[in-house]
Design brief:
Blueprint lengths: L2 E6 L4 H12 L6 E8 L2 E8 L2 H11 L6 E7 L14 E2 L5 E9 L2 H10 L11 H10 L4 H11 L2 E9 L6 E6 L4 E4 L4 E4 L11 E4 L5 E4 L4 E4 L5 E2 L4 E2 L15 H7 L1 H9 L3 E2 L2 E2 L8 H6 L2 E6 L1 H18 L3 E5 H4 L10 E7 L5 H12 L3 E6 L5 H5 L2 E4 L12 H20 L5 H22 L2 H11 L4 E6 L2 H17 L2 E6 L16 E5 L6 H12 L4 E7 L11 E5 L8 H18 L18
Parallel strand pairs: 18-19, 18-20, 20-21, 21-22, 23-24, 23-25, 25-26, 26-27
Antiparallel strand pairs: 1-4, 1-10, 2-3, 2-4, 5-6, 6-7, 7-8, 8-12, 9-10, 9-11, 11-15, 12-13, 13-14, 16-17
The structure holds fructose -6-phosphate.
The site of fructose -6-phosphate (F6R) has 15 residues, from helix 9 and helix 16.
Length: 608
Amino acid sequence: MCGIIGFTGTQDALPVLLDGLTKLEYRGYDSAGVAVQVCDGIRMIKSSGQIRCLRKKIAESGMLPGCSGIGHTRWATHGAPTDTNAHPHMSNNGKFAVVHNGIIENYIELREELTAKGYVFSSETDTEVIVHLLDMYYSGDCKKAVMKAAARLQGSYALGVICADFPGSVFAVKQESPLIIGVGAGENYFASDVTALADHTKNLIYLEDGEFAELTPVKAAVFDCTGAEIAKPITRIVWDVGASQKSGYDHFMLKEIYEQPRALKAAIEPRVKNNRITFDGFDMTNEEARKISKIIVTACGSAYYAGCVGRYAIEELCGVPVEMDYASELRYRSPIVDENTLLIVISQSGETADSIAAVKELKRRGVRVLAIVNVVASTIANLADNVIYTWAGPEIAVATTKGYTTQVAALTMFALWFSEKLGRISESRYDALVKELLLLPGLAQRAIDLNPHIQDLALRYHNNSSIFFIGRNIDCAVCLEGSLKLKEISYIHSEAYAAGELKHGTIALIEPGRLVVALCCHTALFDKMMSNIREVKARGAEVLGVALEGDRRILMEADDVIYVPKADPLLGAIPRIIPLQLFAYYVAKCNGCDIDKPKNLAKSVTVE
Ligand code: F6R
């Protein structure tokens, strides 16, 4: 999704802006632009396509000398990804330039109002209303104009504003879209996320919704929506210096797949103290736990699929019913909830608009919210009553890998912790599961070590035009994620099915040569899976079986086999998904796809 950056200091702004935009590329975008305060006003250059197109355009038209400016990567929502629709947008008189991440819901009314007043629109975007509003409300006080314009906007927005009359000042406004301030020595910044700033400063100010900031080289002043200055704490972040580099890997996705043992260690080990699961800053009395009569798990995409895995552990260990809801749907139905419902929201970024909206809606109905989130101090982490951080570290590739596996680990730890509160688990089962949890990083490594075999399989199967994934129980949930990984980065059509469901319609699509990936790791359901494999083979499918190490029965039916390390059935998703992540990766690589930045996708989906 769109990324914004702003800078003011004493060095040239342009390299800082372009570097920041490059770091924000991973969010997904289709055009980019910058505006810099130069000696006689504001100069702006923007371009459709990648940042290298913008760089080329800047090089052709001469540099933009100036020490403050704003930049933007746009993921098109209103209007095609053209040069004109790219941000920044400028007021008709060239006095203001604006970058925006989010959606202005009332832009049609505002556009009509401003057009009637004589403002001329040059783009199809919702954003352009903002810059004309700024001009309309401007009477020499830029801060006031920013406040007044923001007060007219409905929707979600993170804005960056510069005004030709205030050289050296950049304004930033936050309302339901991510925005952070970076505090440097003699220079200050704002950006959509820390990735863009980490090379410049580790000192951050997190803005709340409704707050805005005026940055000059020497001050980062933050105001509430009435314009009163407020004191904000500066948070010093710990940032893995290697996070924004590929460190020798061809892609961030591969690097992040390989980081999973370490990420799982960071997610699990600090939570196991004296053989007991504990969560810092989050506890519940046994009485409170017993009052919870239902859990709703909500999320989007892979995070939702992590929830599908976690559901098995929660229901089996805790005996509490779990409802799964896509965040984009939850808010538009009427879920039956009361004060005894617990909402678990799962989000790597903590900024997914649908998940935020679902949290707000259920909070409004009095539901307690537990967030499982990776990005510290993100919107969802701030909104939730309690947070379990996944500690996966920064995830740059659009397709999540370590984000997903650490979510699964966090959910399983929650299930174990909760079952103890409820007094539903025997001491021996608890101890065994804790032991198995601590083994997960090692199992993840053994799954990664399958890499050479997976590369061979990808070479063999990458030409398939449609690939099916089937499984039962937790394997079925793993199939959902394996199939999503494949389609999002390789663009191969793929579907995931509960193996027993296939014959109720979808089996019509199985034809000679079609690849079916069959997960057969659930021991109790192995024979059922064999029957399902026979059904698809009878229709000419090729079968890539995924089975537990040492299980030779699969060789009778499958054309190829991936043997995955054994784990407790409730924890098996992690060693099983890793070969499927690798399979998706190498199939996409064989097909020459842009793996870290798949077409049409964004890392952090901050619009509905
Ligand atoms: C797929 C993927 C997405 C995200 C989804 C939710 O690889 O990354 O499906 O899982 O957009 O994002 P978060 O977890 O940031 O809320």
